Amino acid sequence: VQLQASGGGLVQAGGSLRLSCSASGSRFKINVMGWHRQAPEKQRELVASIGSGGSTNYADAVKGRFTISRLNAESTVYLQMNSLKPEDTAMYYCNADHTWGPGTQLTVSS
Question: What confidence category does residue 73 fall into, taking pLDDT thresholds of 50, 70 and 90?
């Protein structure tokens, strides 16, 4: 399985951005897709995940601001991020079950 993520960039606090991640090459159904993030000198942490049936899970820090969605037919997962804060600055990694993508950088300026 290969993952390709896009959508990161520089945004001002309070702004919005959408990350996208597409999986290709999987011979099997992908159960869980999600996003994690890692800020400098911090551990990687879950941001949000979504199961193949649509069940979602969010980190407390992003609840009410971020929305994860998924197109199963295209093995694509999205992360809509609103009301961004400087503390959201991190490298964001998507995953499809146990496969990780290369990451996309989000920087939120104050």
Answer: confident
